[in-house]
Amino acid sequence: MRMTVDAEAGTLTEEVPPNAGLSRPWADALAPGQAVSDAFSEEERRSYLTRFGWCSNSYFSLQDGTDYFDVRGVGFIAYYRQRRLWGEVPIVFTRPVCATSHLEHLLRLFLDRHGERAVFVGIDGEVAVVLRQFGFSTNVCSTEFEIPLKGFDLKGRDKRYLRHAQNSCEKLIDVRELTCSETDTKAVMELSEAWRRSKAVKDRELRLTTRPPEYVDRWGVRRFYAFKEGKLVGFVFFDPFFRDGRVIGYTANILRSMPGLRPHGVLDFVVLKAIEKFRAEGLEAFSLGQSPLHGIVPCEGESTFLRRCATLVYEKGGHFYASKELGFHKALYRAKEEKAYLAKRGLGALATAWLLIRATNAV
After folding, report:
1. Which of 17, 48, 169, 308 could join 269 via S-S bond, C-beta 3.0 to 4.6 A?
2. What is the DSSP-derived secondary structure letter of residue 259?
3. The model's pTM
4. pLDDT above 90 as % of the chain
């Protein structure tokens, strides 16, 4: 349900016909007579995002299937409504898009609207602190890898893998930044399907904690493709993040290559070429994104049981999702690491885990 709040009047508006503007397949499941308000326009949402969308996953808020809690003059919260047998639970999967000074106010309005049960995932420490004040337990759920572009280089023993990837691919792989309209969409989609069939989750795209790939041009998204002897062999899609109305960096969101591709390190080579270009453009930062379950440590206000479960899945659940391998690989960039958090209220640890597994499309 999309809600628009007038921050000055402190009121919620619900005056339009039921299900108006909903394009999601579960819209018909709304209760008869349940009203849906006007939402921000696309232009308004982009305006807030370019001012306050400074987290590496802020752009994920624009993915299909998202609901929004909009507060004019403040910002918005992107969330997903996960259905249960006895109701729905809102799952917020990015930091609220607003100024820091408005964060507590926006969260309070959202929670007042949605009740006791709620889950937040992939949020930063600042949001976690506020949510603890509202009675949430908080756990470290992933590690963010961000590279300050100024001064980044491949020198030193700890970056020898990246140097090897660059040297082995330099003469064999041609990297080009292209729009979707400049590529063979069928070839890109076939490569993507071949890559996915080689993974644990073979028949569906993950969502929320990543943004599923799109094969049409989208505002702000940049795409780099790798060719070997003229044939497409890999690609990386980059989502922007912002501050004060300008792009300050990009997140490597979708990285895919042909299974069994040689030489090794083609996708790293694409990333390095993109970093080189972004740095030349004067951008500040580059993010490898969050690595789920990597770097789990105790934290204030946590569920100890949830932490132990997450650690077990990280160590033993590689057949389900290669969290350990992914975290190890991102660490090769020697990036700045920051913890990301899961916060929950009104739900047990196992119920929360199951909701997230379903919501992210892992099952």
Report:
1. 169
2. T
3. 0.87
4. 80
